[in-house]
Amino acid sequence: MISRVWVLHEGRELLKVSVNGVANGDIEGESREAMESALSALIEAGFHDDHIVRSRLYARDAEARQLASNARLSMLGGHRRAASSSYIDPERLPMGSSIAVDLVAQRVHRPEVSKQVAEYDPIIAPPMYVALDGMVFFSGNTDTSPEFEQQLENIRAKIDACLTAAGTDWSRLFDFTAHVSKTIGPRRAARGLATYFPEVASVTISSVIGYSAPEKLVEIEVAASV
Fold it and tell me: What domain range is 140 assigned to?
């Protein structure tokens, strides 16, 4: 299954393509095929693969998440590299799928504009952010502190630093998505996010089962204008 969602913001156009894998006994192969389908859909819609700004994975379990991440490293490296995140959430996958992938690309009308990739220090698999034609997209930020509220506090500090590094601020945000563990009730999640991110007017909360480490309870993705 392939779905397409267009987002228009300040005269710029984004396309999110979502593809569910088709299980075939080879999760890395399933992941590559899903990514190839997503790439084809972006290109058919007139977007360039070097203008991918975010990739997101959902997997049925920890093993599938790791194998899908391995496939992403090979399929979406180089000029396709983008802000990234990955989650464990079997409930959102249809029967017959081990993984699902979201790819977000930005339409750019000026050929001289290129994507800038900012790395963490030391460099890790996901970049800190990618910037393209006045928009910046940050990889998911997480923490492994024991309590949900502690994680939010530390993630807040990380995003503060990322926004500063990218030359933007909270007032320029146009997307704030928190993937919250299903062990955290929606009211507690909403209270915590309101406490630690009071200036964010619009928050999207998505429930998932797990992350890249069992201690994590929330991962936050943001995007902003610069």
Answer: 2-225
